[in-house]
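User: What would this chain look like folded?
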Amino acid sequence: MSTGHPSNIPELLRQLLDRSDLPALGPQSRPGARPGAQIEHEAKALLSKLALSDRAQDLIRGTLLLWHDHLEAAHTIAQAIEDADGSLLHAIMHRRESDYWNSKYWFRRVGKHPCYPAIANGIRALLKPEQTKLASAVIPGGVWDPFAFVDLCEKAAAGAAENEIRLLQEIQKLEIESFLDHLGSAKLGRSYTEAHK
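Assistant: Here's the prediction, encoded as structure tokens.
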């Protein structure tokens, strides 16, 4: 992972994220996207080897489905988890769906999520010194601002240069990686280590 901090996600799970291309900022599905049933099968096979709650498994599956462009399946999972983690997955899904107002609604329900500092750190490592305008927009005062990122994605949907879109996609990737790392430290860390001693 490229978030600039050690990953808490087992290598096999990280392999389910691997793709040479990045998800779109909107609802578009990438060419050659793996079927949702295949993602579900692979995720369930891996997660069944770990001592995880159903909730943790659902969050990870939902995040992987979202990463692989299966927005409706991710939405179904997010709707059933009524806490900050479920709200974060819900917010990202609606942003990808180009339902920007609804995305902000769910980000308000998230509050200050524990993965936000990792997102901010990853963005600082990603951006070049001359990209101060973008940095001050999405990490004002060094703090991740998901609402500003929603606004940038909405603006990009109305028309943006390819290099600007690519940079926003990289930030979106950092967001997903940081969320999975959070789930790993909170939900996988101890149980994964104990299961593989």
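The two ends are 23 Å apart (CA to CA). If you want, I can go into more detail on any region.
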